[in-house]
Structures are given as structure tokens and as C-alpha cells.
């Protein structure tokens, strides 16, 4: 009887070890930034800054306005232009890494085809607005989430990646929105 | 034959506390300097309107007052700090030659760096380095005060509690100066 009990307990323990190993997150998930989430027109507060998504535009051609005038940028996919307002909490900081995460987990970085709001300097308590544009396949737009990580401080260098703060905002893009994308979408260049 | 006394529980507890203290000393204390440096160093505080010593020089805040500025963000105010610095020795002048970095901080701990786009106070130097007629930097002379300025754009609600912080490149810590009266 005692032997049977020992074998049963051992089997349960082995199963528990297997389950624990399966449930243990991998290194990427374990050290992932800690996200604060929100929706459109909601203030999402993190340690370095608060961010609000004011508007989302989708188009097949990007019209960029800057001091030199207007420029066009074509794409075979879609342009998603996100208008943001952000305020630094304590000290000078830049947004850092700004990405769109598709439903399948693919990450699209902010385009470098114009100077977007991701490069703007934010000052404590002084709200600033600007735009960030993403070029992505039409199929990746529905359900895309704006993801901002790795804030860049102006004065003191701090490691802010692993377990650092992150902003995540569901942009509310549906398949119908993506299908009905406008011919053009406007984006305004910022002065960093 | 004498029996050896067993150590009491209190002795075990004392040993454990000692071991814990040693662990903290070994693990934490060597990293404190690095942490303080990362957080910007420790300040040398001066009372309102008073001077303070830092980096071998005497620092004083002559004035902190609203100044002019155009196209500023809504809800913000420009403010200019006029600072006096007197090097005590030649070595202090050499330390200043690497540059002085000025910032303002409010009671909530928010900090703003200088904004060189503001006009500031006419006739006052923009740098803590004395310059000659051709604008070339000159060595700071011991005992001679250099008056210079730095301007900032801050939210209006920060004005009443601003302090000026000055860092010397390569020096530990910084000096924090309080104005004799809050900017109106």
C-alpha cells in the first residue's frame, strides 16, 4: 500500500514539474517591458511620460508636410498615421522605440521616411503633439496595437529596456477600416 | 569534567544579524556610489539667497526672474537665472573650463534643461567661462566673480518652487541654489 502511494505521489510530482516547466515564461516574456494599456483618446501614464492617441489615419499614399513643402510617399501596403500627445513626467525624454504590433505578433517600426514624433524631445509637464507613420501590409493593420518602449532620457543615461515601462494602445482598426483606406493620408513632420 | 555550554538562541540571532549586515555591506555599499552617480549625484544645498561651495568655487544665485520669449507652448513661462561663480583657486577655474550645465527643478522633482532660444538678460554672459573681446574663452581668475545666465521654459505651476542646479563636467555631485524670492 505504502509503495503504491509513493509511486502515485512521485507521478503527481513529475506531472507538476512538467506543468511548471510549460508555464514558465521564456526570457523574452520574463524581461519584457511592463505595459500600461489604454484606448483611443485615453491618457496612458508610465514613469517617463504619459501618452494619448488622438487620432488614427489610414491611407495608400502618405503626404508629408514640412518646411520645404509637401512630399509624397507611396506604398504597396498601407500607411497608418497615428497622432499623439505626450508629456514627460519628471525630466526631458524622448518616446524611444515606437512600433505597431500586428495581431500575429509582427512588429513594424515607425517609418524613417520622415521625421516623426518618436524623435521629438518632451519636457516635464509640457504637452506636445505630433505624428508617427507606419508602412505595413494591408492584412496586418486590423487589430494593430501601438507599442512604445525604451524611453530615451536626455540627461542621465538609464537602461530602460528590460522590465522598463511600455505604452500599449489598441488603435481600433478593423478589417472594414483597412479595406476602406483613403487614397491619401497626411502627416506633419516634427522639429525634434 | 566540565561540560561546554551551548550557545544561546540570542547568540545565534546576533550572529545572523552580523552576517546579514556583512552581506549588505558587501553587496549594496559598493553599488551606492554608482547608483548616486546614475541618479545625478548628491547636491550641495544652499539656503534661499545664500551661496554654496562646489568644485572649488563659490556659487550664488543673483536672480531668478521671468524673462521674454516668443512662440512658447501654452501654459508655460520663460524664466532666467543669473548666477555668480567665484573660483577659489586656479584648479577650480580649470574645472569650470570643461563647462557648466544648468537646470531648474521644482518642488515636485520635475527638472528642465536650459533653452538657448530665449533672449534672457541683455549684457550677461551665456557661459560660466569668461571670454575675451574676440569671444575666445579665457581662464577663470581666482577670487574674481563671473556672472552668467541660463534661461528655461517651465510650466506656469512650477514657477513658485524653482531651484537652480549646476553641474560641472567631470565633477561629483552638483550645487542647488534657491532664489531669495520665488519668481513672480
List keywords for this structure.
A: 192 residues; alpha+beta; five-stranded mixed β-sheet; 16% helix; B: 184 residues; four-stranded antiparallel β-sheet; 9 strands; elongated
Round the mean pLDDT of chain B to the nearest integer and report it. 87
Greatest interface (CB-CB under 8 A), with counts per chain: A-B, 15 and 17 residues
User: What is the typical, i.e. mean, pLDDT of chain A?
Assistant: 89
Oligomer: heterodimer
Shape of chain A: elongated
- Measured as a percent range, the helix fraction of chain A is 10-25%
What structural class should be given to the helix and strand makeup of chain A? Answer: alpha+beta
Structural write-up:
The complex is a heterodimer of chains A (192) and B (184). Chain A has 192 residues and is of the alpha+beta class. Chain A is 16% helix and 45% strand. Chain A contains three helices and 13 strands; from the N terminus they run ααββββββββββββαβ. Chain A has helices at residues 2-23, 27-30, 175-179; strands spanning 34-38, 43-45, 49-66, 69-88, 93-94, 97-101, 107-109, 121-122, 128-136, 145-149, 152-153, 165-170, 182-188. In chain A, the strands form three sheets. Chain A has a five-stranded mixed beta sheet with strand order 1-12-10-6-7, with no helix packed on it. The N and C termini of chain A lie far apart (76 Å). With 184 residues, chain B is α+β, with helices and mostly antiparallel strands. Chain B contains three helices and nine strands, in the order ααββββαβββββ. Chain B has helices at residues 9-27, 29-38, 90-96; strands at 43-45, 52-54, 57-66, 76-87, 100-105, 111-113, 146-155, 163-168, 174-177. In chain B, the strands form two sheets. A five-stranded mixed beta sheet of chain B has the order 1-9-8-5-6, with no helix packed on it. In chain B, a hairpin with a 5-residue loop joins strand 5 and strand 6. Chain B is elongated and about 90 Å long. Chain B starts with 8 loop residues before the first helix and ends in a 7-residue tail after the last strand. Chains A and B meet through loops of A and strand 6 and strand 7 of B.
Amino acid at each position: 500500500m505504502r509503495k503504491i502511494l509513493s509511486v502515485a505521489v512521485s507521478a503527481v510530482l513529475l506531472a507538476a514539474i512538467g506543468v511548471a516547466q510549460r508555464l514558465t515564461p521564456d526570457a523574452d516574456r520574463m524581461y519584457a517591458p511592463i505595459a500600461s494599456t489604454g484606448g483611443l483618446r485615453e491618457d496612458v501614464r508610465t514613469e517617463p511620460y504619459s501618452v494619448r492617441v488622438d487620432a488614427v489615419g489610414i491611407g495608400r499614399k502618405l503626404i508629408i508636410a514640412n518646411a520645404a513643402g509637401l512630399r509624397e510617399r507611396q506604398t504597396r501596403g498601407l500607411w497608418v498615421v497615428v497622432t499623439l500627445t505626450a508629456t514627460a513626467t519628471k525630466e526631458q525624454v524622448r518616446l524611444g522605440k515606437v512600433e505597431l504590433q500586428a495581431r500575429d505578433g509582427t512588429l513594424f517600426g515607425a517609418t524613417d521616411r520622415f521625421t516623426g514624433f518618436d524623435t521629438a524631445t518632451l519636457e516635464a509637464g509640457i504637452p506636445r503633439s505630433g505624428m508617427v507613420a507606419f508602412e505595413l501590409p494591408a492584412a496586418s493593420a486590423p487589430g494593430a496595437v501601438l507599442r512604445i518602449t525604451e524611453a530615451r532620457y536626455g540627461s542621465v543615461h538609464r537602461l530602460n529596456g528590460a522590465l522598463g515601462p511600455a505604452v500599449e494602445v489598441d488603435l481600433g482598426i478593423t478589417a472594414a477600416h483597412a479595406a476602406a483606406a483613403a487614397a491619401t493620408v497626411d502627416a506633419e513632420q516634427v522639429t525634434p | 569534567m566540565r561540560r561546554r555550554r551551548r550557545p544561546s538562541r540570542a547568540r545565534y540571532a546576533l550572529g545572523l544579524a552580523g552576517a546579514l549586515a556583512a552581506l549588505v555591506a558587501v553587496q549594496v555599499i559598493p553599488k551606492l556610489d554608482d547608483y548616486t552617480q546614475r541618479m545625478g549625484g548628491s547636491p550641495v544645498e544652499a539656503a534661499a539667497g545664500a551661496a554654496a561651495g562646489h568644485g572649488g568655487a563659490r556659487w550664488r544665485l543673483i536672480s531668478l526672474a521671468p524673462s521674454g520669449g516668443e512662440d512658447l507652448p501654452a501654459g508655460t513661462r520663460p524664466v532666467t537665472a543669473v548666477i555668480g561663480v567665484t573660483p577659489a583657486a586656479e584648479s577650480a577655474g580649470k574645472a569650470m573650463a570643461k563647462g557648466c550645465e544648468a537646470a531648474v527643478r521644482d518642488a515636485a522633482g520635475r527638472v528642465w534643461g536650459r533653452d538657448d532660444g530665449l533672449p534672457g538678460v541683455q549684457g550677461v554672459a551665456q557661459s560660466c567661462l569668461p571670454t575675451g573681446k574676440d569671444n575666445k574663452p579665457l581662464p577663470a581668475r581666482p577670487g574674481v566673480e563671473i556672472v552668467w545666465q541660463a534661461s528655461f521654459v517651465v510650466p506656469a505651476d512650477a514657477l513658485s518652487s524653482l531651484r537652480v542646479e549646476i553641474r560641472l563636467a567631470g565633477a561629483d555631485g552638483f550645487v542647488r541654489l534657491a532664489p531669495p524670492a520665488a519668481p513672480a
